[in-house]
Specification:
679 residues; alpha/beta; 8-stranded mixed beta sheet; 6-stranded mixed beta sheet; 24 helices; 28 strands; globular; binds ligand MGD; binds iron/sulfur cluster; binds molybdenum atom
Length: 679
């Protein structure tokens, strides 16, 4: 049996290293890689299910054309035919409109490997229309940029040294599974774990203290904690004086807030935040984990600023066991991004951008020239907000091309389907946005059927375009995938990994030699050089100078319930839930409602409920559970084939922040309101 090293390229905190076992050219087993210090030889259930994903009967193994669009009548075509249809259309549109702007490229994070950025490079080089923004983390990111000047976090392995771990608006027991090892280690060493979430999650079930504020009220809760810490004189005066800008103004601001106001905003009794405040200020060092769910609100960024202020007040920064955790990309900066750059070959391409936030509406609005062709890679458009508008938006497209493994919800509207390889069938380099380990993804098996990698598809497109219109695009045609991977590694990266050659890197995953601490030097790249609670940049961008609370959104008379749609353990966004191993016994999607609400509305378990708002309606079976408050309902995000799709009800309004870090505000996915009726 042959054994290869692979890396899970999903948009997931853990970026696990895997060992793949191959017999007679077939992948027969996948395990974790015990040489990977962060994941320690384990995977999540999705990782172990890759053997099914690779060989699933529904995986598409050759190019196909659907005619007519939406008919479900797909027929096989050759790669040559597919490339011909796609590139001729591209050139015809350029001829008609004078540029490639009528072509919109929409890729997000279906696969975060570096070689997949070839397509991004190609469409930027062509100067087409490209999607701008991300649904993950923008609002929270900007709060870090205002406060610290950059996004850096401690080594997640350092969490074992914490005495208090506050997990605020994140559900790592499901979404960052391997981090639970470090949280549990700290717990065993006597740390207290506090979870703050409107929902009693799998993470909350493992905590010492669970605080259940109203969604979107976390900024007010943070101010309550700050008020208690300062009033009781539990704050770090020396730290504040030396390293913090606006510390005194902030203390004055919180001193004037009434406990009653905080109680009303958060729905919590004052004892709740006072206990958290006392523990965080006195049991040191303490860290805070800022979840992504917390910032998917219209006031999400400003709420983050309030929480970041707590680390500043207590001086829980730059020392082991302390700090604030959020995804960050320190070592993405050590990669050369050669794949993207090699395809792009231009410093400032004249691309046109379209916002992801309300993609359907925004893409329809573009004129002069209008968008006439959509190229999707690693996307399920039904993960976007306002999916009700997608059908009309897609109607205006003369050609929709999709690169994927499976026919998904978006395929209904596609004309051409190009099947791509999985990580086992290609080389790649997948950096983590969480831990400090790097591993190379080796090709373990030959591509299934006629599948090609995103890199190859970019090369094929460039090649055919140049054949049809010589000099149309300047892109490289040569080099093995292995060489492309090697080019992503900079001398600084080699040095940091303590290896001298690419081949050494193939032997096992390596850890970067970076400081386990963030901000150990306490020098901050902000305008003042200090950690800024008072931020002139925030002010210039239209936000309060201080981390004041900004009220969020509220239910209305017509739509009295908040709809939360967080991430599911057995899926990775839209991925995996189509597999039998992962859908079996899970029984999703369900609509969770509180027992008191069920009683009020005379709803029984498994009743079918109509959930609706001004955008549309979805019918789902109910699960009655006390894990959520009475005014909230919950169903998980994901693709449940043939079932109703909840994003129909999400309107795509923007978060307060996000433009600074990612060019677009975040999406306030969790500020959605609905009403219910029994079917
Ligand atoms: N298993 C699995 N893992 C994943 C993913 C997946 O789909 N499945 N997706 C990956 C991706 S792309 C992402 S972005 C991350 C997301 O991972 P997380 O950071 O865990 O974020 P969410 O699942 O969006 O929400 C987490 C929690 O935030 C809570 N929440 C919502 N609003 C508020 C609020 O106003 N205040 C507070 N305090 N809490 C709130 C929700 O109730 C939920 O329990 O996970 C990644 N990992
Ligand atoms: N209601 C609600 N909606 C949400 C969220 C939420 O919390 N609630 N979360 C949002 C968030 S944070 C995110 S990140 C998005 C994620 O949504 P998307 O950006 O659509 O990403 P995925 O669902 O991970 O994957 C999309 C597709 O990529 C394909 N794919 C996998 N590997 C490859 C590859 O190598 N090449 C190509 N070409 N395709 C590949 C998969 O098969 C899948 O069909 O969803 C967002 N939508
Ligand atoms: S989905 Fe996440 S936890 Fe699961 S195998 Fe992939 S990287 Fe690891
Ligand atoms: Mo995400």
């Amino acid at each position: 049996m042959e054994v290869y090293r692979n890396v899970c390229p999903r948009n997931c905190f853990c970026t696990c290293s895997m060992l793949s076992y191959v017999e007679n050219g077939k992948l027969i087993r996948v395990t974790g890689d015990s040489e990977h210090g962060f994941t320690k030889g384990k995977l999540c259930a999705k990782g172990y299910a890759y053997t099914q994903r690779v060989y699933d009967a529904k995986r598409i193994l050759h190019p196909m054309r659907q005619y007519p669009r939406g008919s479900g009548r797909w027929h096989r075509i050759t790669w040559d035919e597919a490339m011909d249809i796609v590139t001729r259309k591209m050139l015809e549109l350029r001829g008609r409109y004078g540029s490639f702007w009528p072509i919109c490229f929409n890729k997000q994070t279906g696969n975060i490997g570096m070689l997949h950025y070839a397509l991004d490079g190609l469409f930027a080089a062509l100067e087409s229309t490209v999607v701008n923004g991300t649904s993950c983390w923008s609002a929270g990111l900007d709060a870090f940029l205002y406060t610290f000047g950059d996004m850096r976090k401690p080594d997640p392995e350092d969490m074992v040294n914490s005495k208090i771990i506050i997990i605020w608006g994140g559900n790592p027991a499901w979404t960052a599974l391997h981090q639970m090892y470090y949280i549990n280690q700290a717990h065993e060493n006597g740390a207290k774990v506090i979870v703050i979430d409107p929902v009693f999650t799998a993470t909350a079930a493992q905590a010492d203290i669970f605080i259940q504020p109203k969604a979107g009220s976390d900024g007010a809760l943070a101010l309550g904690i700050a008020k208690y810490i300062t009033k009781q004189n539990l704050y770090d005066q020396a730290f504040l004086k030396q390293f913090v800008e606006g510390g005194n103004e902030f203390i004055q601001y919180v001193a004037n807030l009434s406990d009653q106001w905080i109680e009303e905003e958060t729905g919590l009794p004052r004892e709740a935040w006072q206990e958290v405040a006392h523990l965080y200020a006195t049991q040191r060092p303490g860290c805070i984990w800022l979840g992504l769910g917390l910032q998917r609100h219209v006031n999400g960024g400003q709420n983050f600023r309030g929480i970041l202020a707590l680390a500043a007040l207590t001086g829980n920064i730059g020392v082991s066991g302390a700090g604030v955790y959020y995804p960050s990309q320190e070592h993405w900066r050590l990669l050369t991004w050669q794949t993207r750059a090699a395809f792009l070959k231009k410093a400032e391409p004249a691309i046109r951008t379209v916002s992801l936030n309300n993609f359907a509406q925004e893409v329809s609005k573009l004129s002069d020239p209008p968008v006439k062709m959509l190229f999707l890679a690693g996307r399920d458009l039904w993960q976007d907000a306002n999916t009700g508008a997608l059908e009309a938006a897609l109607e205006q497209m003369e050609l929709v091309v999709q690169v994927d493994h499976f026919l998904n919800r978006s395929s209904h509207f596609a004309d051409i389907f190009l099947p791509c390889t999985t990580q086992f069938e290609e080389w790649d380099l997948v950096p983590s946005y969480w831990h400090h380990w790097i591993a190379v993804n080796q090709k373990a098996i030959e591509p299934r059927g006629e599948c090609r990698s995103d890199l190859q598809i970019a090369q094929n497109l460039a090649h055919r375009l140049n054949e049809l219109a010589p000099g149309c695009v300047c892109t490289p045609q040569v080099g093995s995938e292995e060489e492309w991977v090697a080019q992503e590694l900079s001398p600084e990266l080699f040095e940091s990994l303590n290896v001298t050659s690419f081949s050494k890197l193939l032997e096992k995953p390596r850890k970067l030699r970076v400081s386990p601490l963030a901000w150990a030097d306490l020098k901050f790249p902000t305008p003042s050089g200090k950690l800024e609670l008072k931020s002139g940049l925030a002010w210039a961008d239209g936000f309060p100078l201080l981390p004041e609370f900004r009220t969020g959104s509220y239910p209305t008379v017509h739509y009295p319930y908040r709809l939360l749609t967080p991430h599911l353990n057995s899926g990775s966004n839209s991925q995996f839930t189509n597999l039998h191993w992962l859908s079996w016994g899970i029984d999703e999607p369900k609509l969770r409602i509180n027992p008191r609400l069920a009683k009020k509305l005379k709803i029984q378990d498994n009743d079918r409920i109509r959930v609706y708002n001004n955008l549309g309606e979805v019918v789902l079976p109910v699960r009655i559970t006390a894990m959520i408050p009475e005014d909230t309902i919950l169903t998980y995000t994901g693709w449940f084939p043939d079932k109703n799709q909840i994003n129909l009800l999400i309107d795509g309004k923007s978060c307060d922040m996000g433009i600074r870090g990612t060019g677009q505000p975040g999406i306030a996915l969790y500020d959605t309101y609905v009403n219910l009726s029994v079917v």
